[in-house]
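Much of our argument rests on the idea that a fold can be written as discrete symbols. The amino acid sequence and the backbone structure tokens for this protein are reproduced below:

___
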Amino acid sequence: MTNNVTVASNLNSTETVPTVSPFDASNTKTYNSTYSTPVYDSQGNQHSLDQYFVKTGTNTWDMYTLMDGRTISSPETQTPDVVTPDVTTLTFDSAGNLQSSVVKSPPVPTLPALPNVSVNADGTFQINNWVPALNSGTTTVPNWVANGAVAAVGGVQLDMLATTQTASVSGAISKSQNGYATGQISAMNVDATGNMFATYTNGQSKVIGQVSLTNFANVQGLSSAGGTNWRETYASGVPVTGVPQSGTLGDITGQALEDSNVDLTMELVNLIKAQSNYQANAKTISTQSTIMQTTLQMT
């Protein structure tokens, strides 16, 4: 699940203050720019962290924050057809760097105890009180109810310290977050050290295990147990197990079949030699038989 979001963005300093107010997420004339960032709950459901930016004056902007287009706080504490975003004031210095952030007005001053969006000591934001929900109503008349999942303990930290205000287009430059949707294994591969990498349908990949190798002081002393299985004996010594490429252990080549470990050219030459020797021996026996018959006939 998501507990950390980092966004680098820019707000166009040449923008003007919107002439239409108050803010309304469905009316583009009430804000200057917007972007959304995916976040995930404990069941892997994707939600949308929506942020709208309204220029309020020279070097000042109001940031309105919604979750899935609704108020962040628990769905049980809000009226189905009322959406009240959290508002945070962003102030920039003359160089266009983010100078300070102040929570302007939580949607409900008394509920919950913590504001839905608060400012941490390091200048990052903390999104509190989020209960993942789904819309059991319609698009025009939504009715948000808890979906059975939970958000990360402690809320979601939102790092927007890289936000700037310059004379260039507004919008997100880069975004990253932890947490991801539910996925199934779509591919696997093994590297030379035995690490097993799994790739999932949600675009994630991770190490899910590691192959180990075992060696013996005297491999020839192993006892055959049938098929390709071998059994430890007193002559083989005790097994030495470890990760590939450690100690005297070899490495692993993933997605490859082991070829013959003999020199095929030399073995073919040896086969020809053996055949020639057989033919020569067979000829010797034949010659000896002929001599014996001739000798018997002379007597």
